[in-house]
Structure formats: structure tokens, C-alpha cells
TrEMBL record:
It comes from Aureococcus anophagefferens (Harmful bloom alga). This is Cobalamin synthase. Belongs to the SIMIBI class G3E GTPase family. ZNG1 subfamily. InterPro entries: Ankyrin_rpt (IPR002110), Ankyrin_rpt-contain_sf (IPR036770), CobW-likC_sf (IPR036627), CobW-like_C (IPR011629), CobW/HypB/UreG_nucleotide-bd (IPR003495), P-loop_NTPase (IPR027417), Zinc-reg_GTPase_activator (IPR051316). The lineage of its organism: Eukaryota, Sar, Stramenopiles, Ochrophyta, Pelagophyceae. ANK repeats lie at residues 396-429. Residues 249-343 form the CobW C-terminal domain.
Amino acid sequence: MAAMDAVSPPDDRVPVSVLTGFLGSGKTTLLNHILTQTHGKKIAVIENEFGAVGIDDELLKANTKMQSEDEIIEMMNGCICCTVRQDLVVVLQKLAKRVAAGELALDGIVIETTGMADPAPVAQTFFVEESVQKFARLDGIITLVDAKHVEQHLDEEKPEGAENEAVEQVAFADRLIVNKVDLVTDDDLARVEQRLRGINAFAPIVRSERSRVSVDQVLGIGAFDLTKTLEMDPAFLDTDAEHEHDDSVSSVSITTPGDVHMLLVNDWISDVLQNKGADIYRMKGVLSIAGAPEKFVYQAVHMIFDGEFEGAWAPGEARTNKLVFIGKRLDKAALEAAFAGCLDAPANRAKIDAVQRVKVMERQQNALLGAAQRDDVVAIRGILASGADPAFANAVGQTPLHIAALWANLKACEALVAAPGVNLDARNQLGGQTPLHMLASRYDKDVEKRAPCCAILLKAGCNPAVANDQGQVPRDFVDAAASPEAATLASMLEPGK
């Protein structure tokens, strides 16, 4: 614990609880219960109504008056997961300004979503909006479940391509409050809870009548603070129990001792998020990275990933990786096999060597792009001599020759066109432009260098008749009347000349 405290200073951002649940599950009743309890906390409530007229709003405001102005209510109309997500950002920024100005002190924020909302975009707001990240942190997603009616919502047939909101709300939950337990039998309740665990095996279940639960079950639960959660419950990411799984949505855990290689696990997570991100509602876990004294703790909501090193491994503590996936069509065996391929182990040595070579090559190639922009011919020749590929392109398809031509760097162009393997007419992803297009696009910049650079490219074999995606040839970019240098460049670029 001492090591953990030394590494991870207290997080003084305002904790945010997202309260979700299908229509009629008891969310507003729970909020009213919180507002009328004597808990001494100053809470901002962000209420979301699906429709222009807010009925719950008046109920909440009435109870807020009993709390000595400690609570602030902000209203938004529409579905918080789509049309008004930006409104949520605006509301949070407004609260942040009041707190920063000393006008307001907050112990927490509760966001109540409409019953039709998918909680994922709400959660993602706290990872992708920088201003929100600085002010507030996601503390947990609490899903209310109507014990009497939840099964029919989970079983509801949706049109092709539409998501079952009730299933998603259960899948995303950090805590499940099974409400209205007084309306069902013990057997019904056991069946409902088994069904819920089949979708989300990792969210603790709290039973309630009339939404009456302790405030501590909703506020400050630290569910999105995996380090804190694991301190309180070391077995949080373990699951040995078998549950009946929903046909489409389930939860999977992986526990693997040993260290993972950072490059391998980075590539694997990137692949999972890119190819399965739409199907994975939540990912969270703790990784033991080879050579790192600290635990790597991460969260992901769909394709939004957030992770950092938090807290040292204690002396004698077994370095073990614990991962949780909640989503659709999860293949546990495939996930386990793929993760095993990330271990820093002799069996993966060939993969580790290969990915390290790739990273070295990527650094070389990026250095080549930089040298082309600087017109550093000494560096270009050295990098090419070390084996760098002159045809390498960056994320938008720009090769070193594109870069050198764009800046009319004469020495760089001379060195690159002479390199074995260079692609003189490579088309980038910025509209299919060739190096000649890039040269012509800035015909009015460094005008004295454009024609000499063009001569180098044409002599090497660059083809001025190659068109871009819009059917334009390099000559089309140049206004010959702009200057004598532009006229010379335009004449040189005439196709067939």
C-alpha cells in the first residue's frame, strides 16, 4: 500500500456516477432517495429526459430544495447517447468553471440517462474530451434492473442492426441494482440474477425495494479505478464460476501468470479494438509488463482505450495478468490463445524479435521522412545505406520523395530518386497525389527551387501525365500567369512534352 500511495497521488477530480437502466426500473426514484437522505455530500445531478417536457425534473427539484442548495440540477432533452452528448460536455464544462471560480464545491456528479440510452458514449466522454478529463473522472456505471420485467426486455426482438438497450445496460454495468425484489418470488429472483451474471459476471449485484440502497452503493464506488478495486477485492478480475450465458452477450476473463511484452500486447490490443471494438462493450484489466516495476491498469469502452502504469508490484507478489471482456460473440479460447502469444516467453521469441525489427525499421523510416523534409542528404544516404526502404509511406501515403518534392528540397530529391526501389509515381492517400503533384501544389513557395527540383524528378522518370483521384495532372495545379518561375514550371509539367 505504501508503494501504491507513493506512485499514485490522490485523484482530486470530481467523481461521476452514471445511472442507467431501462424505462421504469426506478432510476428517478433512486435519485430522489439519494437527494432526500442526510449524507452531507454536495452533488450535481444531470438529468436527461427523452422528450421536450421533463416530468422527473420537477420531482427532483422539489427534493433538491430539502438539501439546502447542495445539489445542482441540469437538464438536457433528447437521448444522451446520441443527440445531446455534446450538451453533456457543455454542462460539465459549466460546472468545472464554477468549481474553478470557487463558486461551487462538489463531492460528486450523478448523470441519470434516459431509459433508452446506451451508456457507452456517456462513458467515452470521460476519456476523449480533454477538458472533461481534467475536471471529472468516471467513478462507475450503475444499472438499475426491474426484477419483475427485466427478462422480457432482455428477450425483446429488435430490428436487424438495432441493439437491445437493456442488454447493453447490463453489459456495461460496474454495479447492478436489482430493484423491486418484493414483486418476485425467490425462484424468480435467482433466475433473474443468473441471467444477469450470464451477461456480466463481474458487476456486484445489490438487491433493493423501491430503489432504497445506501448512498455508498451509488457514489464513490471507485469501479473505474481498477487499482482501488483490486486493493479492496484482489479476486475482482477472477471468475471460476460457470454461468449460463446470453446467446449474444457474455463476459470472459483471462488470468495468466508471467510478463507480457509491451510491443506484442500493444499490437494485440490494437487488433482487438480495431476488429472487435464494436462488439466489445467493456475491457478492463491489469497487465504485468516485462521490465516494468509497476502494474499497467487499463479500461476500454468499445474502441476508446485508456491505460497507465499505477502502483508497483509488491515484494513477493505474483506478477499475474488479469483481463476482463464483456461483449458480443466473444470467443474465450481465441482470446486466451491470442493473449498467450503476447507473453515474454521463449515460445514467443521469434515474434518478439520480428516486432522489434519492425519497430527499428519504423524508426528508420520515420527518420528518413524527417531527413527528406530537412533536406539532410547526409542523413538520407546513411539511413538508406542501413537498409531503409525509399518507397516506405507514412499513415497518409506520403513517401520521402513526396516530402522532399513538397518542400522542393533539391539535394533530398537527388538522393531519393537514385535510391534502388524508389517509387517515382507513388500515389498518396491525400487524393492520390504523386511527388510531382506535391511539387506543383506549392508552385508559389520557394519559386526559385521548383523548376530545378522538377527537372531532377522528370530526368529520373517521374511521369507528369499521372492523374490524381480528381483526374488532375500536376500541370493543373500551376497558375502559369502568377510569375515567370511559375510559367517555367507549368511548361516543364506539360504532359507529353
